[in-house]
Amino acid sequence: MDSVVSVLVGMVVQTTSVLLEARQLIGLVAAALAAILAAQLGWHGTDRLISWHGRPDED
Predict the structure, then answer these.
(1) Where are the membrane-spanning stretches (predicted)?
(2) pLDDT tens digit string along 27-45?
């Protein structure tokens, strides 16, 4: 019975450590994705602004 409890406790400890490491990796991936999306939005927004500003006035 003691061996079963020690195995279960070991599994819980390993799972906790894996989840903590995965949380850091998920945060890093989310930060990189947010940076890519912000760059894409900035590029697209700047392109639209330049094309809108470069249009001749239609009167």
Answers:
(1) 25-43
(2) 999 999 999 999 998 888 8
Distance CA 4, CA 10 (A): 10
Alpha helices in the chain (DSSP H): 2-53
Furthest-apart CA atoms within the chain: distance in Å: 88
- Dihedral of CA 37/38/42/48: which sign? positive
Q: What are phi and psi of 44, to 5 degrees?
A: -65, -45
40, burial (CB in 10 Å: exposed 0-12, middle 13-18, buried 19+): exposed
Using the structure block, give the residue that is written with the tokens 């998920």. Answer: 26
**Taking the alpha carbons of 53, 55, 57, 59 in that order, is the dihedral positive or negative?**
negative
Answer whether 0.85 is exceeded by the pTM. Answer: no
